[in-house]
Amino acid sequence: MTQGEHALPAERGRFITLEGGEGTGKTSNLLALTRRLQERGIEHVVTREPGGTPLAEDIRALLLQHHEEKMCELTELLLIFAARAQHLNRVIQPALEAGKWVVSDRFTDATYAYQGGGRGLNQHTIASLEALVQGDLRPDLTVILDLSPPVGLERARKRASLDRFEQEKLEFFDRVRASYRQRAVAEPGRCVLIDASRTLEEVQSDVLHALERFL
What we know:
CATH superfamily: P-loop containing nucleotide triphosphate hydrolases
Strand content: 5-15%
Radius of gyration: 18 Å
Distance between the termini: 32 Å
Low-confidence stretches: none
CATH class: Alpha Beta
Number of helices: 8
Mean pLDDT: 93
Strand order of the largest sheet: 2-3-1-4-5
Number of domains: 1
């Protein structure tokens, strides 16, 4: 670079999130999605919520483990946004600013679904925290895997021991699913709703099709 020239800022990366209830196959579909980005030569970072940094992972463990003392709904919500603030500051925003794409297993749509729909917390309270922590940052593409809760929970039970959320009653997960579906309808330009009750190959085909349309 000659004197007087300045490096051009990197083009902002894209932010993709994968959402869904228990047992919807997010992990397998996330792998398929990131493989396609790799094939396209797109530099990307794969992360998850809650978590994504050492400190945020500690908060994740606190959220998922069982406690003798019942965690109140507002405590849960604030912990989730505390982890998200750390995640954004240390991982997501730096990657996007460097021109890398970010693929996250869950983000704020999960908060609206689980804490808003499932727990019944006020949507305006969640929106206020979203604005405080994220500013105007929102995912560019959100893939929502949709599955009947009884089927998803049966898959989750076969996978591993159930965490604090997975032991909620079926009605909780019905509300979570309804909230996810409402968000897909409300934001069709960003959200793609995919039927996750089919074979993994069929679901992955739709996930990759959604990515290709976005690309």
